[in-house]
Amino acid sequence: MKYLDEYRDARIARALAAEIRRCSSRPWVLMEICGGQTHTLMRYGIDELLRGSVELVHGPGCPVCVTPLELIDRAINLARRREVTLVSYGDMLRVPGSDTDLFHLKAEGGDVRIVYSPTDAVNLARSLPERKVVFFAIGFETTAPAHAMAVLQAERLGLNNFSLLVSHVLVPPAIRSLLRSPKNRVQGFIAPGHVCTVVGCRDYEELVSEFRVPIVVGGFEPVDLLEAIRMLVIQLEAGRTELENQYVRSVQYEGNRPAQAAVARVFEAADRKWRGIGSIPKSGLFLKPEYAAFDAERIFNLHDICAQEPPECISAEVLLGHKKPTDCTAFGNRCTPDKPLGAPMVSSEGACAAYYQYKRHLVTL
Ligand code: SF4
User: Fold this and answer.
1) pTM, whole model, 2 decimals?
2) Which of 118, 158, 301, 345 is most buried by its number of CB atoms within 10 A?
3) Residue 321, pLDDT score
4) Which pLDDT tens digit goes with each residue over 49-78?
């Protein structure tokens, strides 16, 4: 297939779904990692189309959802400082902290600004030399190269009023932690195609051989996802566990070497806390000591700010695939996109928001 609309072709999608139903001897439990994939599955009703043949559970692949509450509180602490201009992607502004969110602080006069790229944040620091510009750098392996480039650009420009509040997480350690959990039900994974476009396939190959679990690197359109599911079901039915690449139009085995080099120059891996889940070994990226001058947590001494997650929010169980958003007692009543209790209801990529938007709570089983 050559064109995007072919990846949304209903005739091809129905044929793939029929083949999955035909191949499947039992309801296999499969997890997509990326929140973008979750939304496609919900939007096109693929979960319902495959009911009885495949159970889809939704992984911790939404960067906003896994950013710990204390990092939101640290961003809010920064935004309250007179000398700071806090810069972020739009989604982060609505994520509730312990007592407020960045949107409310902005409405109250805080200097909080939305950007679409870290380069915009660097340019802002250049144009506002009297301000301390802090960029809230969140994301997975996909955004890390651009954030690394922003640091390198700021260094080259000699900016001493630009820093990052870093909340970077890595997908493979999260899958490893999930597979080690005694509560794990997942039998196959759709790996995030955009992440693999950057980092390549090697880490996922290691997971396949370590845990004997099939993984298919998948794209983001309905036909991509149905094809990835079909590849997983065929492997599971045949008792095979291999890494396969459905998203060949974007992912190469080695990934994007220049992007990997930029990340390796600026960041290093260390243990990182995930929202609700807790600390996962070597699952985060942190600025290397030689780039400490760009580390907002160090500059503004934020390490002591800690927070407790709201007990009502079961986002950890949702993000680990143990429960569905509709299992949460707050879903759709005390927690809605207009008044979210937890991050998975805020983000456009969150599983709870997807269930709400596509009305899964109204589906009669
Ligand atoms: S519905 Fe709201 S409170 Fe429940 S898990 Fe999702 S985000 Fe948390």
Assistant:
1) 0.91
2) 345
3) 85
4) 999 999 999 998 888 888 989 999 999 999
Could you tell me which CATH number the domain at 65-170+255-299 has? 3.40.50.11740
Q: Which residue in the block uniquely carries the two structure tokens 């000699």?
A: 158
**Atom 7 of ligand 1: nearest residue by CA position:** 342
- Sorted by where each begins, the domain ranges of the chain are 2-62+171-245, 65-170+255-299, 315-362
CATH classification of 2-62+171-245, choosing from 2.30.42.10, 2.60.120.1440, 3.40.190.290, 3.40.50.11750?
3.40.50.11750
Ligand 1 within 6 A of CB of 314: yes
328 lines ligand 1 (CB under 6 A): yes
Taking the centre of ligand 1 as the mean of its atom positions, its distance from the CA of residue 175, in whole angstroms, is 21
Query: Which of 161-198 are b and which e, b meaning 16 or more Cβ less than 10 Å from the residue's Cβ?
Result: bbbbbbbbbbbbbbbbbbeeeeebebbbbbbbbbbbbb
Tell whether ligand 1 has an atom less than 6 A from the beta carbon of residue 352.
yes
Output the residue whose Cα is nearest ligand 1's atom 8. 313
- Distance from the CA of 331 to the center of ligand 1, in angstroms? 6
Q: Ligand 1 centroid to 358 CA: how many Å?
A: 16
Using the atom order of ligand 1, give the atom closest to the CA of residue 331.
1
pLDDT tens digit string along 111-162? 999 999 999 999 999 999 999 999 999 999 999 999 999 999 999 999 999 9
| pLDDT band, very low/low/confident/very high, at 364 (cuts 50, 70, 90) | very low
Report the nearest atom of ligand 1 relative to the CA of 342. 7
Q: Ligand 1 test: best mutation among 69, 94, 328, 333, most atoms within 8 Å of CB?
A: 328
